[in-house]
Amino acid sequence: MNKTLLTKLAILAAVTLILIIVLNQIGGLVRERQARQQEAAQSVEQSQAGPQTLLGPLLTRSCRENWAVKDGLQRRAFTVVLPPSQLQVSGRVTPDPRYRGLFKINSYAGKLSILARWDDFDRLTPPAENAGGRVDCGAVAAMFSTSDARGLRDVQLKRDGQALAVKPGTTNAAHAAGLHAVIALPRSGETLELNLTVDLIGTQRLAVIPAAGSTAVNLQSSWPHPSFGGRFLPAEREVGESGFSARWQVSELASNAAADVAAGKAGLDTLAVDLIDPVNPYVMSDRAIKYGLMFIALTFVTVGLTELLTGRRVHPVQYLLVGLALSLFFLLLLSLSEHLPFVVAYLIAAGAAALVLTQYAAAMLGTWLRGLAFGGGITLLYGALYVLLSREQTALVIGAVLLFAVLATVMTVTRRMDWYGISANRLSQAG
């Protein structure tokens, strides 16, 4: 291989390194914008309310046991927690997005109706654990806990149609944020039903802890892009452009939440729904940039083949300008996607880049026909990139097939090419 060709390859390697630096800088900008979006979400959570996790209603009772020992009297204080035998939660979650500058935060307002029923109250009168011990317990309280009490806008707790006086706090140290009301236990053989109506606000996520013998949750919303999470997926769900509806059914046979709450354990089971945006411009831009080097390499291969097949010499500066145009597409995509739907931003950015590269390639390669062919290839590349971005689960196989197809095309086109003859011809031209 002659010295001239080696020099050009070295220069193209340096050009590629410069473009890699440019892509890394654009990627850093994407990560910075992602961080600012997270800061905006934290700002909304701090000034309004964060993700909400609901627990209860539960019955609680503070008790104390006294027993005699050789040196005097010993005491221990403890709290008894009784989850309901049946818990039914139903309601509607209304999206209420908030904005911090350019950043949208998916907040919501929820109106929930909660019915809790107890059939057995023996656990609220615990036996002594020590010989000769005596257990004294205080009043029974019904508690309801939420992860961020600032989100409670209105709460009504009723028993047999009669409103109960609600006080802040739960009297439970493990789940302190919320409310409680002192109640009288029903007579022997009777059941207890409490109806709780809650108006609350939160950010993005709403979760319910299935702390009951049987838990049924029914939620509706106009948000068309839910993400169901937690330990239990809905038993039934319908998702459409007008919103979603979901129903969960969980028993104590499937979840330890009721037992864990009674034992004061952390890390409780939940069933949850997140109001997410299906297309996050920063995530999509970050994924697009990861394919940037492949774009540049494929374009350089195309230009190089055209240079070899037509004898039209292309200067390294022209390679650099083409690579910069390809790189700045990602910056244009990022900036436009902050103001427009991602697909619209992508079409504008790709169209602008393809138009600029088409007219530049026409001058670089000598004819408009070659320029149009080059622009058509760039357009196909942008189309393939959008398919890769929109098909996350199959992106790897699509990308692998695309690269293999390009390599097969290059090998087919150059299968009869005399590389030594080309090198000799270039050497004679240089001489």
UniProtKB/TrEMBL annotation:
Record InterPro entries: Uncharacterised_IM_CreD
Membrane-spanning parts: 291-310, 317-336, 342-362, 369-389, 395-413
Any single Pfam family the record assigns to this protein: CreD
The entry's keywords: Membrane, Transmembrane, Transmembrane helix
The protein, known as: Cell envelope integrity protein CreD
Organism listed in the record: Pelomonas nitida
